[in-house]
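Why predict the complex rather than its parts? Because the way molecules touch one another can change local conformation, and only a joint prediction can capture that. The input here totals 395 residues.
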Amino acid sequence: MPIERNSPDRRGYFGNFGGRFVPEVLVAALDELEVALEGAFADPEFWAEYHAVLRDFVGRPTPLYRVGRLPGGERVPVLLKREDLNHTGAHKVNNTVGQALLARRMGKKRLIAETGAGQHGVATATVGAKFGMHVDVYMGALDIERQALNVYLMELLGARVHSVGGASQTLKDAINEAFRVWAARVEDTFYVIGSVVGAHPYPYMVREFQRVIGDETREQCLQRFGRLPSDVIACVGGGSNALGIFSAFLADSDVRLWGVEAGGEGVESGRTAAALTAGSVGVLHGSRSYVLQSAEGQVRETQSVSAGLDYPGVGPEHAHLRESGRATYVTIDDAEALAAFRSLAAHEGIIPALESAHAIAFAQRLAGQRGADDLVVVNLSGRGDKDIAQIRART
Ligand SMILES: *Cc1c(COP(=O)(O)O)cnc(C)c1O
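Output of the joint prediction:
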């Protein structure tokens, strides 16, 4: 059973952020989820099964690997938490395993999910196949065109992919559709959200299903080096891989926590996905946090070379960690992320996801300011196989 650390208050707030901004029809469903969650989290058998699935199906624990040749990291120990080695190639499956087990415990027979780039859809379809649950995935019509391979993959895994129209025909519309579908059939349907976003209790629940990353990292650091890291770095889209690794170090005030947002073409250009850095306080997808929006509150189009970071909001706990000063948020632009992608591939033999390349780029910069006694840990959230065609087309 996890130790209660930094839990939201009873209304689902982390400081000034979070909460539940949803239509009346969903309040009962969120209440039901919250009760089931509390029961599951207090049940050692639930966690035992979760960890057994992560061990045998996902391949955990993932290694904490010291790189030796990465430019910038020659003098300073730089360690990669290898979430890229998980089954399905990223951290997202930790969360979908947890939510599928919870859905089964609640007697729900059908999983629904929304997806932008398709990664969360694939992770949900994967656990649907494993646990024998029906999966419906909602995806913007434009994204279906752009991510044809992931659509095919989801169908191969037995999921049904539904095309969603609307103004943008992307993730924003897909999320609205998933909420609508959930409200229409809450009795047998479980909505699997892919990051630490949405109405309470989702941000808290998803963090708890990702904290395994941080718990393992902490233990591996102490075992191998006899000390905690000086710095922990992770990229931030919605923020789940970052909170997953941060959560184990929140109480260790000497460990500096760095969240790396996608600068896109540069924060000043306005063509960015850095919600904390360039956004303002607002409500998106059921909770209060930072949002990229116009002065009138219209959600802005976002821009990032990595589809997984291309989201106009950010999880409420990150807004809180920034406001409290416990974590620091920086940006890395498209060009810097692309250079880090090539750098890790050519010098270490590891091809990172473009999302994770943002964290690598910042680690290279930070390592220049650190010494041999420091330990810089980077969460390598996923592998880059999915990005090869895109990289190749740009050159
Ligand atoms: C989806 C994704 C992300 C962004 O999501 P978070 O919730 O911010 O972690 C980062 N890296 C990879 C590899 C992803 O697939």
